[in-house]
Specification:
By secondary structure, the protein is mainly alpha-helical. It contains 13 helices and no strands.
């Protein structure tokens, strides 16, 4: 933590301030304001890190969920802005969805808040809106990512797969043998394009939803395994699973389609308008 976030770490304080955007919430902002009180840099970094971990644990347990989400988001944002040069996609996605959790009803089920009666149970309109926001956001992310890859030649001719598996920064295994089977790299590149561009089209229909969820999860498992980006692969897989692979209605709910369809089959058909049993003089009517 001190190497990444300390003012005497890998990047010195003036360089960190120069790389950060104007108005960014960084640890240096907190350190400068607490310095007159005699509080040094080390306890502040430790306190922010401990607060971040505790907020994430409270969010996971669903204890004061909304406040825990707000605390985790703010601490994550501060750490992310402090070490801006070390950020990549996983930091951005974590920041975005921690922000969403501040207003989503994340503590409405499987949480301490629910067990303690702090939040009402059952589906709500806000829960449905939150789910749709996450689903649409993921569709936009995968579509733009896939189209961005498709505009270049590297994902069509297999060069992107070859470089990803063999450059020192990401290399986990020896894949130099792909030079003898270039069609494998080409096929893998096409498969990535198909999964990402087809995500917003194939993830919605029920017939193809499970297939695309499985393909997307497999893609991120491959990223974690062969590129060493375990946290990124895990977060993206969890987002797709939670948004599309989990039933939106709770088990046993009347909104679940099989039970609703069974109920509708029990309702007798309506009598035609000219039926004698539904005449205007009928006392039942």
């Amino acid at each position: 933590m001190f190497e990444l976030y300390g003012r005497s770490g890998i990047l010195q304080a003036p360089l960190v301030d120069a790389l950060g955007g104007p108005g960014s919430v960084r640890l240096s902002w907190l350190i400068d304001r607490l310095a007159p009180l005699g509080i040094g840099e080390v306890p502040i970094i430790v306190a922010v890190g401990a607060f971040y971990v505790l907020a994430l644990v409270a969010l996971l347990a669903g204890w004061h969920t909304r406040m825990a989400a707000a605390g985790a988001w703010f601490a994550h944002l501060m750490l992310m802005m402090t070490a801006d040069s070390t950020n990549y996609g996983v930091d951005q996605f974590a920041n975005i969805f921690l922000f969403y959790l501040m207003w989503m009803p994340a503590g409405a089920a499987l949480s301490l808040d629910r067990r303690l009666g702090r939040t009402p149970g059952g589906p709500t309109s806000m829960a449905r809106l939150a789910l749709r926001v996450v689903q649409i956001h993921l569709c936009i992310v995968y579509l733009t990512g896939g189209l961005g890859k498709a505009l270049g030649e590297q994902w069509w001719n297999g060069d992107a797969i070859w470089r990803t598996l063999n450059i020192p920064d990401y290399r986990q295994y020896d894949f130099t043998w792909l030079a003898y089977y270039p069609w494998l790299a080409v096929g893998a590149g096409w498969m990535v394009l198909l999964i990402e561009v087809g995500y917003p089209l194939m993830i919605w229909p029920r017939r193809t939803r499970r297939l695309w969820v499985a393909a997307t999860v497999a893609l991120h498992v491959g990223i974690a395994t062969f590129m060493g980006l375990g946290v990124f692969g895990a977060i993206m897989a969890v987002l797709t699973i939670s948004a599309f692979a989990v039933r939106a209605e709770p088990p046993g709910s009347m909104l679940s389609s099989p039970k609703l369809h069974a109920l509708l089959r029990q309702v007798p058909p309506a009598a035609p308008p000219n039926s004698t049993s539904c005449s205007r003089r009928s006392p039942v009517v």
